């Protein structure tokens, strides 16, 4: 997973949390608009959010492998709390450091 880089988007498993964040962001950005368009933006957003709720993500072989790798990586990091991963100063590298050394 580390070689995928920081901008790689993994499949999500918590769609309720994502939808909640989407609603928060819509409401936050509505405040920047004129009050006359608030309800129009909300109504259009509701249609989009409802379509997202009813959308069932397809799980193919690659997505299943990525989800398994994510789960194993999280478990590894939890079991090995002495290891820190960070970006290197130069290049597109990930550096692993041992806290105990």
Keywords:
101 residues, mainly alpha, 2 domains, two-stranded antiparallel sheet, 3 helices, elongated
Q: Count of helical segments? A: 3
Largest sheet at a glance?
Answer: 2 strands, antiparallel
Which structural class best describes the helix and strand composition?
mainly alpha
Report Rg.
Answer: 20 Å
Strand ordering within the main sheet? 1-2
User: What is the strand tally?
Assistant: 2
Residue-averaged pLDDT: 83
Unreliable sequence segments: none
Shape: elongated
Percentage of residues in strands: 5-15%
Query: Domains counted in the coordinates: how many?
Result: 2
Helix content: 40-55%
Instruction: State the assembly state of the protein chains.
Output: single chain
User: What is the CA–CA distance across the termini?
Assistant: 24 Å
Topology pattern, helix = H, strand = E: HHHEE
